[in-house]
Amino acid sequence: MNIRTPSRAGGRAARRAMRTAPNFNMLPGLTRGIPLCEVMDGAQVERIDAASMYILENVGVQFRDPIALQDWKRVGAKVVGELVYLDRDLVRDLIATIPSDFTYHARDPNKNVRLGGKHSIFVPMTGAPFLRDLDDVRRNPTLDDLAMFHKLSHMMPALHSSAHHIVEPYDHPISQRHLRITYSSMKHSDKTFMGMTTSPKNAEDVMDMCAILFGEQFLEDHPVTTGNCNGNSPLVWDETMLGAMRAFCRRNQPVLCSPFVLGGANTPASVPATVAQLNAEALSALAYTQVIRKGAPAIYGHYLSTVSMKSGAPMAGTPEISLMNFMIGQMARYYDVPWRTSNTLGGAKTFDAQAGYESATTLQAVIHAGANYIWHSAGWNEAGMHCSVAKFVVDAEQCAMAYRMAEGPKWHDFDQAIAAVSDVGPGGHYLGHPHTQDNFQEAFFMPELFDNNSIEQWTAEGEVEITERALSRAKTLLAEYEEPRLDEAKNEALLDYIARREREIPAADELNQSY
Amino acid sequence: MNIRTPSRAGGRAARRAMRTAPNFNMLPGLTRGIPLCEVMDGAQVERIDAASMYILENVGVQFRDPIALQDWKRVGAKVVGELVYLDRDLVRDLIATIPSDFTYHARDPNKNVRLGGKHSIFVPMTGAPFLRDLDDVRRNPTLDDLAMFHKLSHMMPALHSSAHHIVEPYDHPISQRHLRITYSSMKHSDKTFMGMTTSPKNAEDVMDMCAILFGEQFLEDHPVTTGNCNGNSPLVWDETMLGAMRAFCRRNQPVLCSPFVLGGANTPASVPATVAQLNAEALSALAYTQVIRKGAPAIYGHYLSTVSMKSGAPMAGTPEISLMNFMIGQMARYYDVPWRTSNTLGGAKTFDAQAGYESATTLQAVIHAGANYIWHSAGWNEAGMHCSVAKFVVDAEQCAMAYRMAEGPKWHDFDQAIAAVSDVGPGGHYLGHPHTQDNFQEAFFMPELFDNNSIEQWTAEGEVEITERALSRAKTLLAEYEEPRLDEAKNEALLDYIARREREIPAADELNQSY
User: Fold this and answer.
1) Which of A61, A322, A443 sits opposite B426 (nearest CB)?
2) Which Pfam families does the annotation name (chains A, B) (predicted)?
3) Is A266 in Cβ contact with B44 (below 8 Å)?
């Protein structure tokens, strides 16, 4: 990829040399330099807030979990059966202790990233039950396939995380799978990673493995992983998610509080009302994180789609998804908490133009919306049913391009560049000018996976479309992969832990999918 | 397409009936309801302005045209050979008389559109020397192919214009082609259209034909067509473009003053400095329109790409193109003139995922940038070398989606939708709720050309990718096309004019391409 930390020393020759070497250095976490797209005025933000608080106070939220119900009673909420009615003052008091931003720690401290405010990261997709592999064949994934995606995540500069189960490894028993997934994330990349929340017990295992990797006390004071907890819209949180949430929050690790929105099916047929319901759902979970542990980091989340009237299937890249992203960003900032969105979603079955339109539209929306934790940033296709290797590397390059855009224009050499206009003059050309030679590559991003050759050259080279180019790129990357060395003692301890837990946990062979 | 003018009467049954009928009604000109992406603060805008004025005063602009040089001398500019040095006060005085916005008149007055400020229109691509046809075969176009694109432009709701030579009709002599192109635009659609500027004489013919269609006096008082005048960056305007500009401005018809930017090749390797040079170029032409005719409408234009270091070819969908669009929009608004941009550009050779990413990225950028005259909004691929029928209909649907986004969220039924949350309650579903049934389709856009079915259904239906779906859609549209009746006397007069001019103009057989 041709994005890198700009050199400020060494002159033209050094810069040229650097350009020719492949660069797999992670870009620092994005600090945005362009304004936010805010489609609501202050009164409209307050109208959403008021509607959400009305819902929390009068409609209630179902917590299908006895411990959560006890917890809510303990802090004075009205509980009727499984329904919890949350007073707006209680909600505001609780969420007030969520940190506005935090540093998310990686195995390599140089790859720590900040989250919240102007600070954003790109995280690859997770949860695909199928992959389209290095030959573009759609099939069930294995642990080796998962390792491949963790390696690619490690190498793509704009990805800030190796996430967790990018694809579901079907060749390992489901009940033990979370151990191998977590180990694969930790071993194949030294970037940040995510932790499995497929059950409370699994989440505890992830916490224990993080304690081995980072140290128990370090874990207590530093976010080192994130766990996703999906809500069941409308207005339901279940025992699995709440149990996993407790496992993470108790150890001070951030969860994404993510209502799962299929707009029009499990929300009203209205963009602002969908946002109000989603907001109520997210607030109820964010508030609960602070019941579990006051001051624990937490992230305002969501999975967001609108559904097809024809098939009921989730759609991607629609205008309402963009608008809702803009609005949700405003709500998260209103409550001063970091927020998560979903990037590059698509419903296409192959990596065709539909996939390109859907993904780029969503990427642009989430950048303008100012999302902090930009999840599902690479590979997602077929409504999340498969992760495509080809799309993975193209999406990751698109993230690098969006990163460049979100930084905003660079003014450092403006006066020299204007002097070049005088040098070149009317009718001249710039390619030979020293300012151009020194600055071209840092001034203009050149996508490696886009072909801009003439049709004649493209034909001569075999009429290669983007899928084939991207798969070829992925193979080259994997050939150049170098594993970031994991401390031997920690590696042994992790393997011992996994061996012990696999003896303790009975193997089961059914599938377990989570998103 | 499933965008329509919302019904406010007739109840649920009437709305349902309307939904099932195909709707080819043009969407009104877009009035944006979301904020602008402005990446410069006031001081940075003034820094661009100052650099541009420095260039105009000290580097000068070459006007390769004796009449223009005389005109500039007449208004007191310093002229040295073909170089014109424009004092900033003169420039500001001249551009002050350009209207901030104007109504662009169509043959059907219901299809008049407003341009400037919050008012924007989508115009299809023009100038392609090849097409990918209804069978996705790449070949030279004919007048029949051009008519096909004019028909599709007429039918796609989000396109506000039939433009002019969407493709170059190779089956008609080049010297007479502008007559047939203009007639095709006028006859096959009653939306706004563009006028050829391939020579001053051709531009005069277009003006005469507009006078026949709209009446001489109407033309004098109302913009009914637009002409594009490309600059040769850096800082050159040629005789062809300036002569065509005079033909349009004298008849009070707006021109697009469009520097042709290949970022890094004919501009400095700097985003802000490229914008400063482009701005100087645009200002010099905008100022000249007012030398020709004070108060004539004119549009701040540009064609914008960055070039590949590998091949020198123009690239599309890059982050710098987005940033420059944001900045150019700010400059146009600083001078209070309407502005034109280029939409959905792409360098892909086929309608693959690259084309989708490039087009969607650019579409999102120009919407956030607030462009008024959004040209090249449908069909562009292969760096403009071909217009793709498949991409044309998909792009046009994408414009309808972007239109919906740019309108912003709709709050009219917010209270009823929140009441539905109370009705449905935790764990319920909305599809059967009356509010959903009444509002679903107006709340959520459903793209017709995206497939969101399951893989099983998609496979059962023959694994049809977007190109094939789009071509099938185009064939259906063309089968349903109804020609908007042209007044018989006007039609006769136009045909007489063409016959006379074709007797007067010697036929030539070389190619003539313009963008």
Assistant:
1) A61
2) MTTB (PF06253)
3) no
Q: What's the whole-model pTM score? A: 0.95
With CA atoms as reference, the chain A residue closest to B414 would be A273
Closest by alpha carbon to A65, among A239, A231, A200? A239
pLDDT in tens, A343-361: 989 999 999 999 999 999 9
Tell me whether residues B430 and A267 touch, CB distance under 8 A. yes
Helix and strand counts by DSSP (H, E) for chain A:
18, 20
Which of A276, A319, A365 lies at the smallest CB-CB distance from B445? A319
3-state secondary structure A448-490: CCCCCCCHHHHHHCCCCCHHHHHHHHHHHHHHHCCCCCCCHHH
Tokens of A290: 């602070």
Measured between CA atoms, the residue of chain B closest to residue A432 is B265
Residue B154's identity, in one-letter code, is H
For B454-479, how does the pLDDT look when each residue is reduced to its tens digit (9 = 90+)? 999 999 999 999 999 999 999 999 99
The β-bridge partners of B306 are B263, B315
The vertex-B184 CA angle with B181 and B188, nearest 5°, equals: 155
Task: Give the ipTM of the model, two decimals please.
Answer: 0.95
CA diameter of chain A: 79
Cis peptide before A268 (omega within 30 of 0): no
Contact assignment for A452 to B306 by CB distance below 8 Å: no
Under 8 Å CB pairs connecting chains A and B tally to: 418
Q: Quote the tokens at residue A73.
A: 């009673």
Which residues on B lie below 8 Å from A405 (Cβ)?
A: 319-320, 322-323
Weakly modelled stretches of chain B, pLDDT under 70: 1-22, 508-515
- Closest CB from A266, A318, A441 relative to B447: A318
Q: Is B62 helix (H, G, I), strand (E, B) or coil?
A: strand
Query: Measured between beta carbons, which residues in chain B are less than 8 angstroms from residue A426?
Result: 59-62, 83, 234-236
> Which amino acid appears at position A409 of this protein?
P
Q: Would you give the distance in Å from CA B157 to the centre of its chain?
A: 14
The amino acid at residue A127 is: G
- Under DSSP, the state recorded for A127 is -
Mean pLDDT of chain A: 94
Give B258-271 as a DSSP string. Answer: EEEEEETTTS-SSH
Distance CA B214, CA B320 (A): 41
**Phi-psi map region of A136: left, alpha, beta (phi>0 left; psi -120 to 50 alpha):** left
Contact at CB, B463 and A349, closer than 8 angstroms: yes
Task: Residue B53: list chain A partners with CB under 8 A.
Answer: none
Cβ(B133)–Cβ(B145) below 8 Å: yes
Find the CB nearest B440 among A35, A309, A425: A309
Cis check: omega of the bond before B434, within 30 degrees of 0: no
Query: What are B225's strand-pairing partners?
Result: B193
User: A83-85 and B386-388 as β-strands: parallel, antiparallel, unpaired?
Assistant: unpaired
Sign of CA dihedral B288, B292, B293, B299: negative
A346 touches B347 (CB < 8 A): no
